[in-house]
């Protein structure tokens, strides 16, 4: 309670309080726990003296008890760019007499103008007292909070690659994912390149391609999630495997010089390729060693013209037999070994 003072009136002969000795104070039954409202202040003459006056207690006064002020503070919050706003909560402080939030009815929710598209930085969280009530408190002291929007995290993934032993490393590329708000790589500045410790002398097997975010930047993103890739180093193929692979590719996709000949039809089907040694050729009845192609399904023009399969192999129709005889391509500097092409499933050719 405040100091309960009194006023003395009724002096005569132009006298005033200087003729009075002592001090009197009013009294009240109100305490700190007395609720909002009014309480009586009773006048008192106790302790007052004056030579020419006596003291009669006058009317009582009133003690008005107003509501205590509570502070409603919006709690600070944090989220990532592109994310939904978290629940915006508030904390109420300033209770007296050992009281707490149990004396408050209702609930208020803070608010912000920030949306998922709002960029990285800080935004105001506005405190609110709407809907709050308490018998002995008001909620007029509002303190705003801060919403901190942090960069969203992008994932930088090194793409897997493969090469042969002894070859130079390929160009290492990366893919960036994790964009939000419908954005894409157009919001990223700079370029980063993955790398590996593998060299041309690194043996057959796998090596790590290390993802890198060096040089990358974006206003609303970071690049902290790095995913490494794998470099697969394969064994170098043998010469026969290499030539066979090239010949298969040639027959499967003949050059334009063959495809444009109206009398020539290239129809590869179940192409089987093996390499014959001199001994194998002798045992199979083939005149020379080299590549053996079985069931190529190749039809030659009846005019006797040569049909080119690739730069090193020509099929000559001069030995064409209607019952499916052997066709021998002419040799060239690019293909010194002769090949035997069978138009049927004869056992003459031996596969390895």
SSE diagram, text form:
Elements: E1 27-28, E2 37-42, E3 61-65, E4 68-74, E5 77-80, E6 90-93, E7 121-125, E8 137-143, E9 145-150, E10 152-158, E11 161-164, E12 174-177, E13 205-209, E14 221-227, E15 229-234, H1 239-252, H2 256-259, E16 265-266, E17 272-276, H3 278-284, E18 290-294, E19 298-299, E20 307-310, E21 313-315, E22 340-342
Parallel strand pairs: 4-8, 5-9, 10-14, 11-15, 18-22
Antiparallel strand pairs: 1-2, 2-3, 4-6, 7-9, 10-12, 13-15, 16-19, 17-18, 20-21
Q: pLDDT average, as an integer?
A: 78
So how many helices? 3
Low-confidence stretches: 252-352
Q: Based on helices, strands and strand pairing, what is the structural class?
A: mainly beta
What does this structure look like?
The protein has 352 residues and is mainly beta. It has four domains: 1-66, no CATH class; 68-150, Ribosomal Protein L9, domain 2 (Roll), CATH 3.10.430; 152-234, Ribosomal Protein L9, domain 2 (Roll); 239-342, no CATH class. It is 7% helix and 29% strand. The strands form eight sheets. Strands 1-2-3 form a three-stranded antiparallel beta sheet, with no helix packed on it. It has a three-stranded mixed beta sheet with strand order 6-4-8, with no helix packed on it. Strand 20 (307-310) and strand 21 form a beta hairpin. The longest helix has 14 residues, at 239-252. The chain is rod-shaped. The relative contact order is 0.09. Mean pLDDT is 78; it is low at 252-352.
């Amino acid at each position: 309670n405040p100091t309960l003072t009194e006023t003395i009136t009724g002096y005569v002969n132009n006298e005033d309080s200087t003729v009075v000795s002592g001090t009197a104070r009013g009294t009240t039954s109100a305490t700190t726990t007395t609720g909002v409202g009014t309480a009586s202040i009773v006048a008192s003459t106790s302790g007052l003296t004056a030579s020419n006056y006596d003291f009669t207690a006058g009317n009582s006064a009133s003690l008005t008890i107003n509501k205590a002020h509570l502070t409603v503070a919006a709690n600070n919050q944090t989220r990532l760019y592109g994310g939904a706003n978290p629940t915006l909560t508030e904390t109420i402080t300033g209770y007296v007499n050992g009281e707490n939030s149990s004396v408050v009815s209702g609930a208020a929710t803070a608010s912000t103008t920030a949306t998922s598209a709002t960029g990285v930085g800080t935004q105001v969280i506005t405190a609110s007292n709407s809907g709050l009530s308490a018998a002995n408190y008001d909620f007029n002291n509002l303190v705003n909070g801060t919403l901190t929007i942090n960069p969203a995290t992008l994932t930088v993934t090194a793409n897997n690659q493969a090469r042969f032993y002894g070859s130079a490393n390929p160009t290492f590329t990366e893919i960036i994912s994790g964009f939000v708000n419908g954005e894409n790589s157009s919001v990223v500045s700079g370029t980063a390149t993955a790398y590996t410790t593998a060299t041309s002398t690194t043996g057959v097997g796998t090596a790590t391609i290390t993802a890198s975010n060096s040089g990358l930047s974006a206003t609303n993103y970071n690049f902290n999630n790095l995913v490494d890739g794998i470099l697969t180093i394969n064994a170098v193929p043998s010469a026969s495997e290499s030539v066979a692979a090239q010949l298969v590719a040639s027959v499967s996709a003949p050059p334009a010089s063959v495809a444009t000949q109206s009398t020539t039809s290239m129809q590869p089907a179940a192409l089987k390729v093996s390499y014959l040694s001199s001994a194998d050729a002798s045992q199979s009845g083939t005149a020379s060693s080299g590549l053996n192609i079985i069931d190529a399904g190749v039809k030659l023009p009846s005019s006797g013209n040569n049909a080119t399969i690739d730069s090193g192999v020509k099929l000559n129709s001069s030995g064409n037999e209607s019952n499916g005889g052997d066709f021998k391509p002419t040799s060239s500097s690019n293909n010194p070994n002769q090949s035997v092409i069978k138009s049927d499933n004869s056992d003459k050719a031996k596969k390895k």
